[in-house]
Amino acid sequence: MHYLLFVGALIFFAFMTPLKLAIAVCALVLFVTVVVKVSAQVVAGVSPSLGESFKSVFYASLLVALVLLAYMSFSSGTGIHHVEGLPAIAVMAGLFVAYTLGFQIGIGTSFGASAVVAIISTLLSGAILWSVKGIAF
After folding, report:
1. Is 0.85 topped by the overall pTM?
2. How confident is the model over 39-59, as a mean pLDDT?
């Protein structure tokens, strides 16, 4: 059932964005999925399928979005809009934990191995985005 949700979200996204952007985002998600699969094999010694790797990327993105929504709700409710110092570090740590938990839930590895997979996939996807930003976007 959740695959229908993924396909529906993909179709909705494809209709709402320009074709060039939709293709670039789909290629990046596929690349990150393959990176997560390979890095989980190397780091944790598990062999997740491409579906499990895609679910972990989806869960990581979803949990980060939920943390950002909670932070925005907190900042609008309290009137605190400028965060610096230790609270900013706490927010960044919360985002990293949410991102790592997405990989831990999706792949089923330990928190440490999921953190390494999250760091590797973030660095490689950031490098790919930076290198093709003039072409794709």
Report:
1. no
2. 89
